[in-house]
Amino acid sequence: MLQLANILHSRGFSITVIHTHFNSPAESKHPHFTFIPISDGLSPAEASTEDVVSRLTLRNSNCVAPFWDCLAGLLADGPITCLITDAFWHFSQSVSEGFGIPRIVLRTSSISSFLAYDAFPVLREKGYLPKQDENDFKEMAWGLANSMQPFLWVVRPGLVRGSEWLESLPSGFLEKIEDKGRIVKWAPQQEVLAHFAVGGFWTHNGWNSTLESICEGVPMICSPCFVDQLVNAKYVSDVWGIGWREERWREGLGE
């Protein structure tokens, strides 16, 4: 979305980014944009729930009023050419129609995600929208340590069920890696992938990550979890031949 905003700005458009506090953009990296935060009305418990569908539903319900007020304030200062919104934020359609503002929907996921998102309720019911399992997390940690290769590992807070951040790291792991690796909560992914020192990308194969890796010419080790990641990983490994699915790599080792 921000890449599209940069392109539009280069063509003379004035850009205002309306966002919630959740996963808010780095304003300092885009000083030529105006950023306006709005409340999504979620409690800490609601914001941290593992139920992805529930979070999306609540945000689409809670954001209507603050989004309306935000647009009303902007319109008081001048006309708005159009709204460009993520496909997930369908609440913005009724608001844009209320103000008579054209709306363009930007869908940043792959075509394979259409059927997967339709199946979200079933996936949720059957427990197929998981967090990282602690045993898998420890196995990944030892895999990185035993590779003896330098690495940058992004571990989001709350990634592992029952853990706030790095509590699930196996005993002795940090001593094993010494200065060969660094663990962070967030990294500018495309900038990292563009660095000459990066030789590979171990990824869950979300569509954005897959595209950025392709654009920067970085081969992938694919560890998909759910939704379109599974299809993306199959294309990367079996069709395009620019990566390797983890289970096939294990089979190659005779495991």
Automatic annotation (TrEMBL):
**UniProt KW keywords:** Flavonoid biosynthesis, Transferase
Please verify whether the record's keywords include Glycoprotein: no
CDD domains registered for this protein in UniProt:
GT1_Gtf-like (cd03784)
Q: Transmembrane region positions?
A: none
Instruction: Tell me the InterPro entries matching this sequence.
Output: UDP_glucos_trans
GO MF term set: quercetin 3-O-glucosyltransferase activity; quercetin 7-O-glucosyltransferase activity
What's an example Gene Ontology biological process for this entry? flavonoid biosynthetic process
State the source organism's domain of life: Eukaryota
Q: Does the keyword Disulfide bond apply?
A: no
Looking up SUPFAM superfamilies in the UniProt record yields: UDP-Glycosyltransferase/glycogen phosphorylase (SSF53756)
Q: Which family does it belong to?
A: Belongs to the UDP-glycosyltransferase family.
Protein name as annotated: UDP-glycosyltransferases domain-containing protein
